[in-house]
Write a structure and sequence with these properties.
Blueprint lengths: L1 E8 L3 H12 L1 H8 L1 E9 L16 E2 L3 H5 L5 E4 L5 H12 L3 E4 L2 H18 L3 E2 L2 H4 L4 H8 L5 E7 L2 H13 L3 H10 L8 H4 L2 H15 L9 E2 L7 H9 L2 E12 L2 E12 L11 E8 L3 E8 L3 H17 L15 E2 L6 E11 L4 H11 L4 E5 L8 E8 L2 E2 H12 L9 E6 L1
Parallel strand pairs: 1-2, 1-4, 2-3, 4-5, 5-6, 8-10, 10-13, 10-18
Antiparallel strand pairs: 7-9, 7-11, 9-10, 11-12, 14-16, 14-17, 14-18, 15-16
Helix pairs in contact: 1-13, 4-5, 5-11, 8-9, 14-15
């Protein structure tokens, strides 16, 4: 039987999962594919991470570069994380003629051209299914199922931590900080959750999906992103009363000769299927010009979903199914639309004094920028005190809305920070 020899850099949660899965399913994989995948070496400095794995002392090495110098290894798995050492490791592996499988979304988002240009020149494969949605096969879907179609839109939930927090806030009325604490206690959030809750993690993943979908060499800096830390229980409650759920969405939209790339909290109608993707689950909705709409759903992170995606990539490489070049070359046709030129419908919550004429003054600022009000709600009364005023707009230009909000913030009747959420259909 044919053998394919691999090396694994990093034996943390995901790397250890890959080793365990290959061991458990070794016979089944060989029977289904005709190829036996053999782990020759695994690089890990922390001995505690290797104790539970069925690896001999000779298989575990402290230096990942030993995987590159080992001529028997055909493919390396990079699950180290970060972008500095990981980039050096991946480029040296490619230069040595080795295929690479990685789950590193930040590395791909920030160094895509460097990696794929090198792989193309060397004639090796880079597999990255685990980089965007864990066990959800969105990379394979975009590269294969939609290869002959024209993708017009991607709407995705790509961060399980943020989705868990918003789900908790919706179900229990929790504050952001309380829901974040619950996420940490369950192991869904890192000790420093900044990348997750700021939207940066989703933005890294969106760059990868947008490159595959639109064939352009987008950069991480092209993505507008904001997080969920400013979403308050009041906004969740108002959204629910209005028939919406609040979700952190990653959006890629093709508009003629431009593309929108943005990550931010959105109001999604209760009737929309993505509104009910809860907890730590991920979902990716794809609109194709000919195929129509497809929605993928599953566990977006964690030991086993990520390991499953990595093993699938290893099998593709080992059996020759994987491509040896970047999925699509840059077509150079789409420019990223500035956020100020994006059109959307808006939910805006002001905190204002409860006195006559306040709503009219707010409406005047909006109207001066051609922002039309769809409906307005002042659910509480507190004469002379501060109350929330909620406004839904018709479709308007982002730049105009932001200018109107700056004007409103200068009014002497505004008593707190304004919250803005965009609606996604």
């Amino acid at each position: 039987m044919q053998k394919h020899v691999v090396g694994i850099a990093g034996l943390g949660v995901v790397g250890g999962g890959v080793v365990a899965m290959l061991e458990k399913n070794r016979a089944a994989i060989a029977r289904r594919t005709g190829v036996e995948i053999v782990v020759a070496k695994a690089a890990e400095k922390d001995a505690a991470k290797t104790a539970h794995l069925k690896l001999s002392s000779g298989q575990v090495v402290p230096d990942a570069m030993e995987l590159i110098s080992d001529g028997s290894i055909e493919t390396v798995v990079e699950v180290i994380g970060g972008t500095d050492f990981a980039l050096d490791f991946v480029l040296k592996a490619i230069a040595a003629g080795k295929n690479v499988v990685t789950a590193n979304k930040a590395l791909l988002a920030e160094h895509w051209s460097d990696i794929f240009d090198a792989a193309r020149d060397r004639g090796v494969t880079v597999g990255f299914e685990a980089s965007t949605a864990g066990g959800v096969p969105v990379i394979r879907t975009l590269r294969e199922a939609y290869i002959g179609d024209n993708i017009t839109r991607i709407v995705a939930i790509l961060n399980g931590t943020s989705n868990f927090i918003l789900t908790r806030m919706t179900a229990e009325g929790s504050t952001f900080n309380s829901a974040l604490s619950a996420a940490k206690s369950k192991g869904y959030a890192e000790a420093d959750p900044t990348l997750d809750v700021s939207g940066a993690d989703s933005a890294h993943k969106l760059v990868i999906l947008a490159r595959l979908a639109f064939g352009e060499d987008f950069a991480f800096k092209d993505v507008y992103y904001e997080g969920i830390s400013k979403v308050e229980p009041a906004d969740i409650r108002f959204a629910t009363d209005l028939g919406y759920r609040v979700k952190l969405l990653a959006l890629a939209k093709r508009r003629d000769d431009s593309a929108e790339l943005r990550v931010h909290p959105c109001l999604v109608k209760e009737s929309h299927p993505i509104a009910h993707v809860d907890g730590v689950y991920n979902s990716v909705l794809i609109d194709g010009e000919f195929a129509g709409q497809t929605m993928l759903y599953g566990e977006g992170a964690g030991r086993w979903p990520a390991a499953s995606a990595i093993v699938a990539d290893l099998i593709d490489v080992a059996t020759g199914r994987a491509k040896t070049v970047a999925p699509r070359t840059s077509e150079g046709k789409l420019k990223v639309r500035p956020m100020t030129e994006v059109d959307a419908r808006y939910y805006i919550r002001f905190q204002a004094l409860d006195k006559p004429g306040v709503l009219a003054r707010i409406a005047g600022c909006l109207g001066a920028q051609q922002v039309s009000i769809s409906s307005a709600i002042q659910p509480e009364r507190r004469h002379g005190g501060s109350v929330p005023v909620v406004i839904l707009t018709h479709e308007a230009r982002e730049g105009a809305v932001q200018k109107a909000l700056r004007d409103v913030s200068g009014l002497d009747v505004i008593t707190g920070e304004t919250v803005l959420l965009r609606e996604e259909e």
